[in-house]
Amino acid sequence: MFANIIIISILVFHGASYMFGRALTSILWGMVADRFGRKPVIVVGIFTGLVFNTLFGLSVHYWMAIATRFLLGSFNGLLGPIRAYVVEVCRPEHQAIGLSLVSTAWAMGLIIGPAIGGYLAQPTEKYPKLFPTKTIFERFPYFLSSLCISIFYFIILLSCVWLPETLHSHKYKSTEDQSNESLIQQLADSEDFDEQKNSSSTNKSILKNWPLMSSIILFCIVSFDDMAYTEIFPLWVESERRLGGLSLSSDDVGQVLAITGATILLYQTFVYPHIVKLLGPIITTRIMTIFSMALLITYPFIAHLLEPWLSIVLNIASMIKANCIVTAVTCSFILQNNSVSQEQRATANGLATTLMSFSKAIAPAGAGIVFSWAQKHQHVLFFQGGQMVFLLLDIVIFVELIWTFKPFLVFPEDVTS
Hints:
The protein is mainly α. The chain has helices spanning 2-36, 38-57, 62-74, 79-89, 95-120, 123-126, 136-139, 143-159, 178-189, 191-202, 210-238, 250-279, 281-302, 309-337, 342-375, 385-403, 413-416. The chain is globular, with a radius of gyration of 23 Å.
């Protein structure tokens, strides 16, 4: 028991060090991207990811692993600039599919990353014929998985050579021709331009931009729900039936997550853009939130099913839940990026990443405590352990639904128009 507590504590500190480092510097990297461009920040983030990820695989002490993960998070300023980059490189009618691809890549990374770590960790024990003993892979049992990810980093770094800068794309330059200068002058003399200028000046302070801040809060609530569910789902699936679980193996969990990841790719690419185009990001979020709440109510009853219905229903439930979460996340991206001007977009996304990192750092600990408590309360009359876990998740999602209405969520003008 004591050994399990130590292992869990190590994993928590290991994951939290990355989130803590990213939370401290995301706003700074966003400001740098707004000042010097998106491409430099993206290149620095990929290069430092390559370096610190490789050093993590070569760690021989616990403090070295924690330090490299912290530095990896600190120099990872990619999320904010990439979301800003996608909005600027896509036409307005294509922004939904652009941001959906960002969410899809993130979701696929959550599936593929753990799979690489699981299959390639300790290769001398799993694949002794390919990786004999007394080699670097025996001394550093996690170097192979880190090396594969670093190779992927290197390929992406090379592809950045052809990545165009977008920060200047929508700005007027002093070298433009005389006709454009006269047009700008005419706009400057008009009342509409004055009103727009005054409106933009009032939004110079990001913290006072309530459409932005309300959409970031929505993003944090969705992220908390996502991280808590991600923590609870495998624990629930692998726990014994007498404790309200499904008594499945870790291989079964991996199979479910792999199928779910594939559906996210298909849904976000071919279905989500059409839904948002038809309903808009706000109504889409509300509908998906209601679906998610209704779905979680059925989870305790899934534990009473037997094969093959258990696997079928579990896969369907996992697919629907994951796509509901990714939909809400992508819709919040659209709201955030339509709430600020271009010169503040990366900073705004950096602020969202910082607050999201704190939210995701709290969620696993809270979810773990709730699940441990639920395991000890399986024989009460009302709201047994498994039911209580999903009830509490439903409460979080209900708060998320309430936040999509006024006066909590203030809609950006681009979205309401």
